[in-house]
Amino acid sequence: MPIALQGSTSGTVTLVATAVAGTNTLTLPAATGTILQSGTTVTPAQGGTGLSAPGTSGNVLTSNGTIWTSSAPAAIPNALPSVIATYTLASGTSGGTGSSTRTTYPYNTLQTNTLSVTNTGGVLSNLPAGTYYATWTCSCYGGTLASWLRNVTTSTDIAQGANVYVSGVAAMVSNPWYATFTLSGTTSISVEYITPSVAGNRLGIPSSISGASENYGMLTIWKVL
Length: 225
What we know:
Layout (H helix, E strand, L loop, with lengths): L1 E5 L5 E5 L43 E4 L4 E4 L11 E7 L13 E2 L4 E5 L4 E3 L2 E5 L2 E12 L1 E9 L4 E5 L3 E3 L5 E3 L2 E7 L3 E8 L19 E10 L2
């Protein structure tokens, strides 16, 4: 039967309730609320989401201050390194003579590689687009050493590392440094170094400890986004 709703000032709205088996009662909200036509979304102003469906399983509701959207949750940055490359040689093996011109540091072992990069003479290739955080070290036995994190694909420096200077003592030190950077596409990177004073063991003198490899440098990369 028809139901007429009278406005507080003027006008009426007539609802025609279709007969439903077993009942002829239209139940209204006890206090306040909104009566909607079947299939109509509930807007945020009415206390709803404005969405007609929840979206893909696993999605979350996100507000921009005006509307709600159903979307995949934001990526969580990786806590563990994506790539670890080291310059590792057999026990008792010197790191090498160094170079008086900028040269690729010879990281030769991939200890961790969740990005499936390839390592060719210290050049790490096939890093996917994204945002990264990296740290690196290059050992130096006496003398001086400078290093750079290099985008090989674009032939540009990403960052310069801390310089090493050792004078008057036969000591071996490294120059830990870090950088954050974003790659727009698949990229190759490396660390380049220079040792103006070249000597027989400039890149590291062996500890010669039985059963222990000689680790002279390390490049660690996190893909954070």
